[in-house]
Task: structure prediction
Amino acid sequence: MSESNKEPGMAYSMPKLHKIMAILSFIFLVTTLWVFLDDYMRPWKAYQVEALKIKRRHLDEQIKAAAKEIDSTKLAELNAKLKKVEEIVQSRKSDIESAEKDLKVIVTKFKDQTITNGILNGQVGAINFKYETSLSHKDPKAVTDKAFNKLQELKARFVKGKDSLKALQAEEKVIVTKITEYKKEVTRTEKEIKEITNKLNLLELAKKTTTIDPVFALRNLPFIDFLDPTIKIHQIVVNNVTDDRYFRHVPKVDRCITCHTFIDQPGYEKEVNPHKTHPRIDQMVGLESPHPMKQVGCTSCHGGEGHRVHDFRSAAHMPDTDKQKAEWITKYNWHEPHKIQQPMLTKSQSEASCVKCHSGVELIPGATVLNEGRMAIEKYGCNGCHKIDGWEHKRKTGPSLLKIAGKVDKEWFKSWVWEPKAFNKHTKMPAFFMQSNNSKPEFAKLNMAEVNAIAEYVWDKSKPYEANEKYTGGNAEKGKELISQVGCMGCHGVDGLEDNSKKVKAYAGPWLSGLGSKVKPDWLVSWLKKPWHYQEDTIMPSMRLSNQEANDIAAYLLGLRNVQFEDLKFAKLNLADQDRVLLDYYTAFDTVASAKEKLAKMDSREKTLELGKRSIGKYGCYSCHNVEGFDGLAGIGPELTKVGSKPAGQFGFGIHHDIPHRRDAWITAHLQRPAMWDDGIDKVFKDLNKMPNFYMSETEAKKITVALLGQVSDVIPLSGVKRLTASETMYHDGMKVVNKYGCTGCHQVDGLRGDVLNMYMDDINQGPPRLVGQGHRVQTDWFYNFLGNVQPIRPWLQIRMPSFNLSTEEKNRIVGGFQHGSKQPTFTEPAESVKWIPGEREETIKLWNALNCVSCHSGGFTNDVALAPNLHLASKRLRPTWIKKWLTNPQAILPGTSMPSFWGDDGKTPIETGYFGGDADKQVEALTKYVIELGQK
Amino acid sequence: MLKELINKIADPLYSFPITTFLFYLMMRYYRIFGSKKFGKWALILSVPVIIWFLADPNFILIILFPDNVPIAILLVMVAFFTWFSLHKAAENDVRIEQGLGPIEATPENREKVWSWPNLVYTELFAIIACTAFLVVWAIIFKAPLEEPANPTWAPNPAKAPWYFLGLQEMLVYFDPWMAGVVLPGLVVAGLIAIPYIDTNPKGNGYYCFQDRKWAIISFLYGWLVLWVYLIIVGVFFRGPNWTFYGPFEYWSLYKIVPEYNINLSEYLWIKGLGVAMPKNLILRESLGIILTILYVGVIPVWAQKATKMGRQFYKDLGSIRYYIFMFLFVTMMSLPIKMVLRWLFSLKYIVALPEWELNL
Result:
């Protein structure tokens, strides 16, 4: 301040202040530029430039291919021809020139007349308006003859002008035709050349749009790039799917295509992300697919923040594997998205979203992981305790306990409930006891009291059951063979047949293990012969076994024993423990003293039954098993209908910090060991986590997780969801019955499941028939009767179509379902007695013999072993249109079928050309008639 | 061990009395506090302490939370300017005691200069520098664009802007209409009223402490302890569910603290007299109402009559100014009093009239 060079009245030296000002100004300039630069540099711009280069590369390749396609000699010829014809045309030069001169004159006149007419048109309109208004207002001053005449004159001139326009047009046409005629050879040749080179030319035009030139640079220059940029954010606005913005629903805006540049364009499958084509372009995103991008968007299925393109992280991408995660961390500085309700589903989870729009359907074709997840849910019966909307129709997973006393021993029952896996390591029955949270001695003894009481209650309520068959002993070896042949394996895994069991992975029925230590022999035979004698609503069918067969199978199954388990003795009911647990229940709303008083008034038996009932309610046994006294009760678990939208913060992770605090991670961990959340937490007995342990593998848990993640609360507008037509509803309702009875354990229905076919990979024709377009194949009345009264169709098969105890309604549903699935009417016109054109029948029989149909379809013709269905029965069973379709190309319906394709792969090239003039349609028609005739005899 | 101790004493229960005591020390020994030596050593010692704090994974999470970074910077500036003013004041006080007059009154400092360019030009510098700084700041620390607001899924903790976190902290101790309406209203009104209440002509144009001792102490107490300190607590120590978390503590969503608060009337009737609460609301809350009236109405009168300082104030200010000042002062002091009562007795409300939405 006391510097010598400052002036009077100045605290600072001016030059110094100016210097500071200069420095500050410079800094300010730099920061301003930085603002623009920072605003300009967006990661997605780099991707778009990259995409431009990729597109150029592809176009180059296509141009090369297109150039190769062009027949160069032909092109040279055409060019030479062009030169020649040009000369010819040149010789008419003077004619052409004079015609063109005339044309110019006409065009000029035409234009002149157009202008005149335009002016007249305006005037007529204006004066007309004025005159008419005056007329309606009765203005005598304006409504004069003079005005009227003027209007008339104008109108006349206008009409005349229009007329002269027409005359000029006609003249023009004449001259143009003349000129075309003079030039026709050149025009024609040029057209021919264009036909050859058109593709190439178009590609080259397309290539031009990918050029990075000064105009491109200018349009994308910082600051002026708001005018008309080529590098810009692209977005899809999906009106069919909305985002919940809490105060209203707004159409979804997905900007994913800003970086995923070629997602909807085939041909970029080999590029690296984000420039890859969608891997399921036939199903998703593609223009021709059922889910086109413009209608469905991206985040509707994938989740994530579709409108955010700020950087890689902002869209809430989620890595699928640890490897990918590590890669993303280094590449994109990725970290777990915060505060995002619905981060993207990982790649392996994306099928979860199908459920959002496709309701009323059990299995969705193509959604493999989701289907497996849903099958696992059904297998373990999760839906028994946890309500899931749309799963209400499912049956109880476990067997009925209403007559259990007639089936197993009470001691066995207790040990079984205590630790099911100890008896059968494959069982679906989960373990409630001896888990990490309740294996402490003081808890275990209370659990034992509960198990004892449960057994007492169940036995108390169990109705008497007398088996209606006697076990008379049988050949176990034969029984084992029968089990593997007749079709048991479509629903059951079986000890001793592990190879096949593992191939099939059946789950509709229990894995058969240790039956000799479990059930009473008479019961087993009775059960095998007629399952609904024991349990009315069982899905177990009768295999129409003979007494010998049933006894053989029983002999094998009874030979499976678990000796170790047999020796188990379950602890006697401890009365003190019983009181202690009951006290927990009674003190919920009562004081300890009055609860004790209440207990004191009860005798020991009463207490036991009370505890048994309470325990069944506590553990939700009734959700899977029919138990008396629990009809109509809801499951004990939380509802899962919207679990996919439950905020991650609402899941209790307990002390487990190693598990990522995410919805999917919690569900997967929970499924594998539900008791884990009690780890390290001091809980009293009644508060322990009750979810039992299914000893599920991680793979299985992950599949169920996928199925559950799709259970979201999102409200999709009706225009966005898949609304089933009446016909589709019929189909899917039918499929629900089909799935309930495990039909799909054996039959592959329209490409789905058919688990047991895995046993017949060597010769698929030895397995149960695949049902493709079954509603088209069979006639409605035949089908209905068949379901109630099974008659073997394919005698060469060892596997049997079982007889199910289906209700009338269920049979109707199955029949109607298949029929609507194939879009067939219920009944078609009955095939009247076949009418032949003279000579047709004789030729048909010749063809029939030439094709040697009888060699396989021997039934009713020869005594040879039949390798195909008896055709005498076909006309009652099959629909004529289907017979034709089948004959034409059986491989198209059932790939791998032993039925030969007599009319080639296209169904149009007959092997036997000597009949019906080699006309495939006529041949097929004739054979169809013949087959129908066979049945009518 | 040390971290645990710090976690513990950071709890307002301890840290508030400690802060108040430190404030007392600062005021009592302002000359030591304001010395260059103290400033230098405080700076030297604070560096390793800060580094040690930053080395903690939980602390760094809180401090580097984008919203919190500028607050940390502001706090440093508050500390510096407090020291700087007391440093200047201490210097001047020494000079005044020696009869020299404040530095600002020396002849060379009384020289007058042109406001252009000396003032206006330098102000322009400041404007440019600040703008450039803010621009760079905005580029480097992007404003977090979060998901659309969802009333059914509020962020936890839901925090007010940092400058209101003192108010939000008051919500822990007061009914919303007190903490959100009356007290902030009185803060504003009180700040506006200062020039009219404070008629002390001394201290104009120069730093000093002795000449305006009580004005400075009461203002700085309200500013540093009741405003800045509460902001620190609100910003750094209040986590999910507005639960207290020490500086080295992980913000677990599930932390639970035992708190069961009891109204004064419940203390009186149920715990004290062992009888049912009277139906009559006024009777029920009579003790609290009487105490409140005593606090607001009687203390100022008593102070004026019975204390030397009160008499002095009354003489200097005149009755209207005195009573306005005292009203504002007791209202300000109601905050620490209520806090202490909460900690010591789990006192919820002195007057609890939820029927009238009137809780004190």
About this structure: Chain B has a mean pLDDT of 89. Residues 264-359 of chain B form one domain. The longest strand of chain B covers residues 352-353.
